Amino acid sequence: MKVGLAGWWQTQSTPAIPRATLNAAADLGGKTVLVLGANAGLGLEAAANFARLVPAPGRIILACRSAERGEKALAHVKTTTGYEGKLEVWQVDLCELASVVRFADRFDADGGRLDVLVANAAIMPQVYHATKDGFEESLQVAAIATPHVILRLLPAMLRTAAEHKTLPRIVVVSSDGHYWAQIDERVWDAPGPDAGILRTLGSAAYCAQKGAIFARYSITKLLNVFFMRALAARLPADPGSGPVPRVVVNAVHPGMCITDIFAKFPLPVRALIRGAQRLVAYTADEGARFLVWAAVGDAAALRGQYIGGGRPQESSDFVLSERGQRAQESLWAEVLDILGDVDPKVLSIVREYLEEPKQHA
Ligand SMILES: NC(=O)c1ccc[n+]([C@@H]2O[C@H](COP(=O)([O-])OP(=O)(O)OC[C@H]3O[C@@H](n4cnc5c(N)ncnc54)[C@H](OP(=O)(O)O)[C@@H]3O)[C@@H](O)[C@H]2O)c1
């Protein structure tokens, strides 16, 4: 699907999901919800919305890069919702894969259940900035560290499904920006040490090219969709319920929302965007409810889907193209190759818990 102005507006003008609808759909009693990138914007408001839905003794984990910002977020969730269940801040910096390893090891040691994982963290870059791992930071957050967290926490979700007879949910926060992204020719055929889509896109040399950083955010959102689809195709089915996987994954576009995601833009541009946002954008609370809906709405309808305006929508033509399919599989292999070097547990998890890819619905 291509999205023109009319299609964009159709999604953007969809009314926010009412709290009553979320309440009616959600069955979160006693469950554990983890929001990645929970200290600001949509992640923070998603955590607050989950807090309204998860009756005590549920558990909500705010996974944040800064413990200090996380504690402020925790106080916000507590005061705005009166939540009485377990509310915790766990530190994780997606710009450092060693931090993801520590975070996941802590989760393994904790041994708790995991019912909902909302992978929401993102960066909208304005300049090239490399992580300690050597990748452009927004690319690492979206396409390497987010898959890292998801794959490492997958065994806990599958265990939760088996022990509690439930259907855990993974929500990858993407964007309609993915409709405008393609992976261009220079990336596919790049020779040398940076060979591979992620290694090429993540390199200083590629990012120095004209327009590369400008196009970066949409590409990260495209990579979110690719990862979601690659994972959905490999999730094991429940033998008792036909093709329904034991964990459901989808990708969601929350709509254009008023948050600080544009904070790194120059002031005049920011002011212009703020003006436009006041006219058409959702509040962070309204946008967050689309994230929550992706986690609690009808699993059969939403599984493996890209969701916009609260309903499944076709992904971009590039995603669905033969070239896109090849990109998806090549990215999957490269993510495992990169993660295998820093965290061998990822490869064991893939071998033990995931299946050969099925054709995507
Ligand atoms: N706002 C929109 O109009 C819009 C539209 C479509 C899609 N989205 C998507 O919605 C999601 C949330 O966006 P938002 O608007 O709420 O953005 P935001 O206000 O900038 O929040 C981004 C969150 O990601 C976290 N994060 C960034 N880098 C991280 C890292 N290295 N490690 C851990 N956490 C990190 C941030 O933490 P720090 O505070 O530590 O940086 C923050 O909590 C993103 O995936 C975005 O692409 C937003």
TrEMBL record:
Highest taxon of source: Eukaryota
Pfam families named in the record: adh_short
Any one GO MF annotation of this record: oxidoreductase activity
Gene3D superfamilies membership: NAD(P)-binding Rossmann-like Domain
UniProt keyword annotations, A-Z: Oxidoreductase
InterPro entries linked to this entry: NAD(P)-bd_dom_sf, SDR_fam
Identification of the protein by name: Retinol dehydrogenase 12
